[in-house]
Design goal:
The protein is built from seven helices and four strands. The two termini are 25 Å apart.
């Protein structure tokens, strides 16, 4: 994460569990089956809601708030599941079954836009986002982009464990197995890649007109003025990260 990063409307925060199990990751795929079933239906709903939002934005320049909150919840749920699972392996705490924010090590929030461009809604989710899809397909490979596919205004499913993220998480899992430690630089890089993918998912889901930056913001704390959820205290002996530098006022 760079010191002078401009905050993005999609905020993704995470806290690494200091005592991740050596071998629990071997069976997390089994433990997560109930979540995968729920997410399958949630992402069908995400697509349907995005289609409705597309027409609402086209005619009113507004994303209906209730629909917006639902789709944010789907992204939030997806992030928690993949943070626990093979998108990060950042915690052993089982993800809660809720669309709302929760006391959990992985958090996501999207600033609600009062108005959205009627013109951009026609092209941003397919034409303008193509360069981002290429990057994300490399980062998460068989996952959030390539593992499903872009359909209409939404992303059809969650992401699995592919691309660079999948490779790095596999390396982290092997290190965990033999040392019971998650290499911090590896963790920071994985979370940065996941954050990039989630920003693109929200942009493709019509939740913001701000184009996702071509910037890898590493680490658990997203640049911005306030976290998506109160950050738990760091374990004793962990060096604190420097606070983010607020963006200069416009004009």
């Amino acid at each position: 994460m760079t010191e002078h990063s401009t905050p993005y409307p999609v905020r993704v925060d995470a806290v690494l569990d200091p005592s991740v199990s050596r071998g629990l990751w071997l069976v997390k795929w089994l433990l997560l089956i109930p979540h995968f079933v729920v997410l399958f239906f949630l992402w069908i709903a995400f697509f349907a809601v995005s289609v409705i939002a597309f027409f609402a934005i086209l005619f009113t320049a507004r994303y209906p708030r209730a629909l917006f909150d639902f789709n944010v919840g789907v992204l939030r749920w997806t992030w928690r599941v993949h943070y626990y699972g093979y998108g990060a392996l950042g915690t052993d705490r089982y993800p809660p079954f809720t669309l709302a924010e929760a006391d959990y090590p992985a958090h996501l929030d999207v600033a609600y836009p009062e108005r959205l461009s009627r013109g951009l809604v026609l092209v941003k989710w397919w034409l303008l986002a193509i360069p981002q899809y290429v990057v994300v397909s490399i980062l998460v490979g068989g996952g959030l982009y390539a593992g499903s596919h872009v359909t209409g205004e939404g992303w059809n499913a969650g992401w699995g464990a592919g691309g660079l993220v999948g490779l790095l998480v596999l390396i982290a899992a092997v290190v965990l197995l033999f040392t019971a430690r998650y290499p911090r630089p590896l963790y920071d890089l994985v979370v940065g890649m996941d954050r990039w993918a989630l920003r693109v998912a929200a942009y493709a889901g019509l939740m913001t007109d701000r184009y996702p930056p071509f910037r890898l913001d590493q680490g658990g704390t997203d640049p911005g003025s306030s976290p998506a959820f109160p950050t738990p205290p760091l374990p004793p002996g962990t060096p604190a990260a420097a606070p983010p530098v607020p963006a200069a006022p416009a004009g």
